[in-house]
Amino acid sequence: MNENLIILELFQHEVSCCCPKKHQHILEFHQGDVWIITKKKYDDSLGWHFLVTVNSEFQFHIKAEDIEELYNKGRICSILDLELKILNLNFKVNEALDEHDKESFILFTNELSNVQKVKDKMKFSIAF
To answer: Is residue 70 within 8 Å of 76, Cβ to Cβ?
Structure first.
């Protein structure tokens, strides 16, 4: 399972350290950071959790529920979702042009610009 996710907005997340003192650490993730989920594991006390590699720089473990919550809040999405959003917004921009709908055109071009900025900030290129 190699699922690629992209960070859509800045956020901090608390993770447990594997050191003997079991410290809690706050990790900060920035727009454009890429998570690659590499391993899934079940632990009786923790439940399902994943090993995540961030920008090929470091790794951490995260609970499955935390990923779901971040996804539902719109803080992360799959890279495929991001690509589909760009295609959909391009379609809507063209549709607004065809209909001479200035309001919709401005709305969709601004949204497309914002989504494209997220894609441009990706820390490294993912081959599809």
So the answer is: yes
Q: Report d(CA 94, CA 108) in Å as an integer.
A: 9
Are 69 and 99 in the same domain? no
Q: How far is CA 10 from CA 31, 36, 37, 47, 62, in A?
A: 5, 17, 19, 27, 17
Model confidence pTM above 0.85: no
**Structural domain that includes position 87:** 78-120
Which amino acid, residue 128?
A: F
Q: Are 76 and 47 in contact (CB under 8 A)?
A: no
Q: How many domains does the chain have?
A: 2
Same domain membership, residue 69 and residue 112 = no
> pLDDT per residue over 13-51, tens digit each?
987 665 556 667 889 999 999 999 988 988 887 789 999
Burial of 68 (C-beta count, 10 Å sphere; 0-12/13-18/19+):
exposed
Buried b (16+ CB within 10 A) or exposed e, 32-61: bbbbbbeeeeeeeeeeebbebbbbeeeebb
Asked whether residue 125 is domain-assigned, the answer is no
